[in-house]
Amino acid sequence: MGTPYRGTTTWSFGGPLTPGVKYLLISTIGVFVLQQLFAPVTTWFRLDPAQVLGSFYVWQLVTYLFLHGGLFHVLINMLILFMFGCEMERLWGTRFFLRYYFICGIGAGLFALLTPDPVVGASGAIYGLLVAFAMYFPTRVIYMNIFFIFFFPIQAKYFVIIMGLISFLSSLGGGSGVSHLAHLGGLAVGYLYLRWGGVRSGARRSAGRSSPGGFLQDSYRRWRMKRLRKKFEEYYQKRGGGPRYTIH
Fold first, then answer.
1. pTM for the model
2. 217 and 160: one domain?
3. Which carries the bigger pLDDT value, residue 204 or residue 218?
4. Do 124 and 218 belong together in one domain?
Protein backbone atom coordinates (compact mmCIF):
# COMPACT_ATOMS: atom_id res chain seq x y z
CA MET A 1 0.00 0.00 0.00
CA GLY A 2 1.34 3.45 0.71
CA THR A 3 4.57 4.27 2.45
CA PRO A 4 6.03 7.57 3.69
CA TYR A 5 4.90 10.61 1.76
CA ARG A 6 7.08 13.57 0.90
CA GLY A 7 6.43 17.09 2.07
CA THR A 8 7.98 20.25 0.72
CA THR A 9 11.36 19.97 2.38
CA THR A 10 11.15 17.11 4.88
CA TRP A 11 10.12 13.48 4.99
CA SER A 12 7.23 12.43 7.17
CA PHE A 13 5.66 9.15 8.23
CA GLY A 14 2.34 10.47 9.51
CA GLY A 15 3.38 11.58 12.99
CA PRO A 16 3.30 13.03 15.52
CA LEU A 17 0.44 10.91 16.81
CA THR A 18 -2.83 12.82 17.12
CA PRO A 19 -5.53 12.16 19.77
CA GLY A 20 -8.25 10.75 17.49
CA VAL A 21 -5.87 8.40 15.71
CA LYS A 22 -4.49 7.30 19.08
CA TYR A 23 -7.99 6.45 20.37
CA LEU A 24 -8.75 4.47 17.23
CA LEU A 25 -5.45 2.60 17.37
CA ILE A 26 -5.86 1.64 21.03
CA SER A 27 -9.51 0.61 20.71
CA THR A 28 -9.04 -1.33 17.47
CA ILE A 29 -5.96 -3.21 18.65
CA GLY A 30 -7.65 -3.83 22.02
CA VAL A 31 -10.70 -5.35 20.32
CA PHE A 32 -8.44 -7.48 18.14
CA VAL A 33 -6.83 -8.89 21.28
CA LEU A 34 -10.32 -9.66 22.64
CA GLN A 35 -11.09 -11.49 19.41
CA GLN A 36 -8.15 -13.78 20.04
CA LEU A 37 -9.15 -14.42 23.64
CA PHE A 38 -12.92 -14.74 23.14
CA ALA A 39 -13.91 -16.04 19.72
CA PRO A 40 -17.64 -15.18 20.11
CA VAL A 41 -16.74 -11.46 20.02
CA THR A 42 -16.30 -11.71 16.26
CA THR A 43 -19.64 -13.46 15.77
CA TRP A 44 -21.51 -10.97 17.92
CA PHE A 45 -20.13 -7.75 16.47
CA ARG A 46 -19.17 -8.46 12.84
CA LEU A 47 -21.29 -6.96 10.09
CA ASP A 48 -23.68 -9.74 9.12
CA PRO A 49 -26.08 -8.58 6.36
CA ALA A 50 -28.66 -11.18 7.38
CA GLN A 51 -28.70 -9.93 10.97
CA VAL A 52 -28.66 -6.24 10.07
CA LEU A 53 -31.46 -6.51 7.50
CA GLY A 54 -33.40 -9.34 9.12
CA SER A 55 -33.06 -8.59 12.84
CA PHE A 56 -32.14 -4.90 12.64
CA TYR A 57 -28.75 -5.26 14.33
CA VAL A 58 -27.77 -1.78 13.18
CA TRP A 59 -24.97 -1.40 15.72
CA GLN A 60 -22.95 -3.82 13.62
CA LEU A 61 -22.48 -1.01 11.09
CA VAL A 62 -20.12 0.53 13.66
CA THR A 63 -18.76 -2.42 15.64
CA TYR A 64 -17.45 -4.25 12.58
CA LEU A 65 -14.91 -1.46 12.10
CA PHE A 66 -13.03 -2.57 15.21
CA LEU A 67 -12.84 -6.26 14.24
CA HIS A 68 -10.22 -7.76 11.93
CA GLY A 69 -9.59 -11.07 10.27
CA GLY A 70 -5.95 -11.52 11.20
CA LEU A 71 -2.76 -9.90 12.42
CA PHE A 72 -1.68 -8.64 8.99
CA HIS A 73 -5.17 -7.25 8.37
CA VAL A 74 -5.19 -5.14 11.52
CA LEU A 75 -1.55 -4.06 11.20
CA ILE A 76 -1.86 -2.79 7.63
CA ASN A 77 -5.08 -0.91 8.40
CA MET A 78 -3.64 0.69 11.52
CA LEU A 79 -0.42 1.61 9.70
CA ILE A 80 -2.37 3.43 6.99
CA LEU A 81 -4.59 5.03 9.63
CA PHE A 82 -1.47 6.43 11.31
CA MET A 83 0.19 7.52 8.08
CA PHE A 84 -2.76 9.40 6.59
CA GLY A 85 -5.13 9.89 9.54
CA CYS A 86 -2.75 12.06 11.57
CA GLU A 87 -2.38 14.47 8.68
CA MET A 88 -6.13 14.77 8.20
CA GLU A 89 -6.82 15.15 11.92
CA ARG A 90 -4.33 18.00 12.19
CA LEU A 91 -6.13 19.55 9.25
CA TRP A 92 -9.71 19.10 10.49
CA GLY A 93 -9.49 18.75 14.24
CA THR A 94 -10.27 15.63 16.29
CA ARG A 95 -14.06 15.89 16.40
CA PHE A 96 -14.44 16.40 12.68
CA PHE A 97 -11.87 13.72 11.87
CA LEU A 98 -13.64 11.08 13.98
CA ARG A 99 -17.01 11.99 12.49
CA TYR A 100 -15.67 11.61 8.98
CA TYR A 101 -13.98 8.30 9.84
CA PHE A 102 -17.21 6.75 11.12
CA ILE A 103 -19.32 8.20 8.31
CA CYS A 104 -17.04 6.51 5.79
CA GLY A 105 -17.01 3.29 7.80
CA ILE A 106 -20.79 3.17 8.13
CA GLY A 107 -21.19 4.06 4.45
CA ALA A 108 -18.85 1.24 3.49
CA GLY A 109 -20.91 -1.08 5.70
CA LEU A 110 -24.09 -0.12 3.85
CA PHE A 111 -22.41 -1.10 0.58
CA ALA A 112 -21.32 -4.38 2.16
CA LEU A 113 -24.97 -5.18 2.92
CA LEU A 114 -25.38 -5.83 -0.80
CA THR A 115 -23.42 -9.05 -0.37
CA PRO A 116 -24.44 -12.06 1.76
CA ASP A 117 -21.10 -12.55 3.50
CA PRO A 118 -20.24 -11.16 6.97
CA VAL A 119 -17.62 -8.41 6.98
CA VAL A 120 -15.00 -7.27 9.48
CA GLY A 121 -12.34 -4.58 9.27
CA ALA A 122 -11.79 -0.82 9.11
CA SER A 123 -10.76 -0.84 5.45
CA GLY A 124 -13.84 1.08 4.30
CA ALA A 125 -13.05 3.95 6.68
CA ILE A 126 -9.38 3.73 5.71
CA TYR A 127 -10.25 4.10 2.03
CA GLY A 128 -12.29 7.14 2.99
CA LEU A 129 -9.17 8.66 4.56
CA LEU A 130 -7.19 7.91 1.41
CA VAL A 131 -9.64 9.76 -0.80
CA ALA A 132 -9.69 12.68 1.64
CA PHE A 133 -5.91 12.87 1.57
CA ALA A 134 -5.94 12.82 -2.23
CA MET A 135 -8.54 15.59 -2.39
CA TYR A 136 -6.67 17.91 -0.04
CA PHE A 137 -3.14 16.98 -1.14
CA PRO A 138 -3.56 15.74 -4.73
CA THR A 139 0.06 16.27 -5.74
CA ARG A 140 1.63 15.00 -2.52
CA VAL A 141 4.09 12.24 -3.38
CA ILE A 142 3.68 8.89 -1.68
CA TYR A 143 5.45 5.62 -2.36
CA MET A 144 3.48 2.66 -3.63
CA ASN A 145 4.60 -0.84 -2.76
CA ILE A 146 4.55 -3.56 -5.42
CA PHE A 147 4.79 -7.15 -4.20
CA PHE A 148 6.58 -5.87 -1.06
CA ILE A 149 9.71 -5.44 -3.18
CA PHE A 150 9.47 -2.42 -5.46
CA PHE A 151 8.58 1.10 -4.42
CA PHE A 152 7.84 3.89 -6.83
CA PRO A 153 6.72 7.49 -6.25
CA ILE A 154 3.23 8.46 -7.28
CA GLN A 155 1.03 11.46 -6.62
CA ALA A 156 -1.77 10.87 -4.12
CA LYS A 157 -4.57 11.50 -6.61
CA TYR A 158 -3.27 8.82 -8.98
CA PHE A 159 -2.63 6.42 -6.13
CA VAL A 160 -6.26 6.62 -5.01
CA ILE A 161 -7.51 6.20 -8.58
CA ILE A 162 -5.41 3.05 -8.94
CA MET A 163 -6.66 1.67 -5.62
CA GLY A 164 -10.24 2.39 -6.64
CA LEU A 165 -9.81 0.64 -9.98
CA ILE A 166 -8.23 -2.37 -8.30
CA SER A 167 -11.15 -2.62 -5.88
CA PHE A 168 -13.69 -2.21 -8.67
CA LEU A 169 -12.14 -4.88 -10.89
CA SER A 170 -11.67 -7.19 -7.92
CA SER A 171 -15.32 -6.78 -6.92
CA LEU A 172 -16.38 -8.10 -10.32
CA GLY A 173 -14.60 -11.39 -9.73
CA GLY A 174 -15.71 -12.16 -6.18
CA GLY A 175 -14.65 -15.13 -4.09
CA SER A 176 -11.45 -13.47 -2.86
CA GLY A 177 -12.47 -13.27 0.79
CA VAL A 178 -12.05 -9.47 0.66
CA SER A 179 -15.01 -7.09 0.64
CA HIS A 180 -13.95 -4.93 -2.28
CA LEU A 181 -17.45 -3.50 -2.41
CA ALA A 182 -16.92 -2.07 1.08
CA HIS A 183 -13.66 -0.51 -0.12
CA LEU A 184 -15.50 1.15 -2.99
CA GLY A 185 -18.20 2.25 -0.57
CA GLY A 186 -15.65 3.97 1.66
CA LEU A 187 -14.16 5.76 -1.33
CA ALA A 188 -17.53 6.83 -2.71
CA VAL A 189 -19.00 8.00 0.60
CA GLY A 190 -15.82 9.89 1.51
CA TYR A 191 -15.68 11.65 -1.83
CA LEU A 192 -19.36 12.58 -1.87
CA TYR A 193 -19.26 13.81 1.72
CA LEU A 194 -16.23 15.99 1.05
CA ARG A 195 -17.57 17.21 -2.26
CA TRP A 196 -21.18 17.98 -1.34
CA GLY A 197 -21.71 17.18 2.31
CA GLY A 198 -20.57 20.44 3.89
CA VAL A 199 -17.29 19.08 5.21
CA ARG A 200 -14.73 21.59 4.04
CA SER A 201 -16.08 24.32 6.29
CA GLY A 202 -14.52 22.35 9.14
CA ALA A 203 -11.11 22.62 7.54
CA ARG A 204 -11.42 26.02 5.91
CA ARG A 205 -8.22 27.21 7.49
CA SER A 206 -6.20 24.53 5.69
CA ALA A 207 -6.99 24.38 2.03
CA GLY A 208 -8.98 27.54 1.49
CA ARG A 209 -11.97 25.48 0.39
CA SER A 210 -15.42 25.95 1.85
CA SER A 211 -18.47 23.75 1.94
CA PRO A 212 -21.68 24.54 0.06
CA GLY A 213 -23.12 25.90 3.31
CA GLY A 214 -19.98 27.90 4.00
CA PHE A 215 -20.02 29.24 0.45
CA LEU A 216 -23.58 30.51 0.89
CA GLN A 217 -22.70 32.15 4.20
CA ASP A 218 -19.63 33.82 2.68
CA SER A 219 -21.67 35.00 -0.31
CA TYR A 220 -24.31 36.48 1.98
CA ARG A 221 -21.68 38.30 4.05
CA ARG A 222 -20.07 39.74 0.94
CA TRP A 223 -23.45 40.85 -0.40
CA ARG A 224 -24.36 42.40 2.95
CA MET A 225 -21.04 44.25 3.19
CA LYS A 226 -21.36 45.56 -0.36
CA ARG A 227 -24.85 46.82 0.39
CA LEU A 228 -23.75 48.59 3.56
CA ARG A 229 -20.81 50.15 1.75
CA LYS A 230 -23.08 51.43 -1.00
CA LYS A 231 -25.50 52.97 1.52
CA PHE A 232 -22.62 54.54 3.38
CA GLU A 233 -21.22 56.13 0.22
CA GLU A 234 -24.67 57.37 -0.87
CA TYR A 235 -25.16 58.97 2.54
CA TYR A 236 -21.92 60.98 2.25
CA GLN A 237 -22.68 61.99 -1.31
CA LYS A 238 -26.05 63.36 -0.22
CA ARG A 239 -24.39 65.26 2.61
CA GLY A 240 -22.05 66.74 0.02
CA GLY A 241 -19.04 66.87 2.22
CA GLY A 242 -15.80 65.06 2.76
CA PRO A 243 -14.21 62.35 0.71
CA ARG A 244 -15.85 59.03 -0.09
CA TYR A 245 -15.05 56.22 2.29
CA THR A 246 -15.25 52.46 2.03
CA ILE A 247 -15.90 49.87 4.69
CA HIS A 248 -13.56 46.87 4.86
1. 0.75
2. no
3. 218
4. no
